[in-house]
Design goal:
- By secondary structure, this protein is mainly β.
- About 0% of the residues lie in helices and about 35% in strands.
- It contains no helices and 11 strands.
- It has strands spanning about 15, 25, 30, 40, 45-50, 55, 65-70, 85-90, 100-105, 110-115, 120-125.
- The protein has a 3-stranded antiparallel sheet, with no helix packed on it. Strands 1-3 form a two-stranded antiparallel ribbon. It has a two-stranded antiparallel sheet with strand order 2-6.
- The protein is rod-shaped.
Length: about 130
C-alpha cells in the first residue's frame, strides 16, 4: 500500500520506489499513475489501484545478534562457589518463553553464551553442596 500524507495526487504523477522492505530489492521500474488508477473513493480520499508490483527477493542469511551473560557465584569470604545452577529466562518480546540453564565452574563463573539480545531475569535454582540458594 502506498500512502501520501498532505499531498494532492493527480493522474500523470510518477511513483518510484526508493527503499524496499528488508530482504527485498527495490523495483527499478517507475509507475505512472493514470486516470484509470483512481478507482474508488473512501470519504474524501481516493484509493489508487496500483495493480501487481513485484520486488526481487534478496536471499541473504541474517545472523541474529547475540550476547553473553557472565557473573561469578561467591560465598562467604569472597570464595568462588562451583556447582551452583542458574536459569536465565526471557521476560518480554522476542525473548519471552526462552530459558537457559548454566552451572558455575570451578572458579564460580556462570556463563550463558550466544543468548539472543533482549530482557532476561536470572535466578539461582540450586546451590552447591550444603549451601542455600541466594
Amino acid at each position: 500500500m502506498v500512502k501520501f500524507v498532505n499531498k494532492r495526487i493527480k493522474p500523470g504523477y510518477t511513483i518510484t520506489e526508493i527503499h524496499a522492505p528488508k530482504g527485498y530489492k527495490a523495483t527499478s521500474k517507475p509507475l505512472v499513475i493514470g486516470a484509470d488508477k483512481f478507482t474508488n473513493m473512501v470519504g474524501r480520499t481516493y484509493v489508487i489501484d496500483l495493480g501487481e508490483m513485484s520486488n526481487s527477493k534478496i536471499w541473504a542469511p541474517i545472523k541474529p545478534m547475540t550476547g553473553e551473560v557472565r557473573f561469578t557465584k561467591i560465598g562467604k569470604g569472597e570464595i568462588p562457589l562451583p556447582g551452583a545452577t542458574f536459569q536465565l529466562k526471557g521476560v518480554s518480546g522476542s525473548t519471552s518463553g526462552l530459558t537457559y540453564t548454566a552451572v558455575s565452574n570451578s572458579r564460580g563463573t556462570v556463563s550463558f553464551k550466544n543468548i539472543p539480545l533482549g530482557r532476561y531475569s536470572v535466578s539461582e535454582v540450586s546451590a552447591p553442596g550444603s549451601f542455600r540458594e541466594g
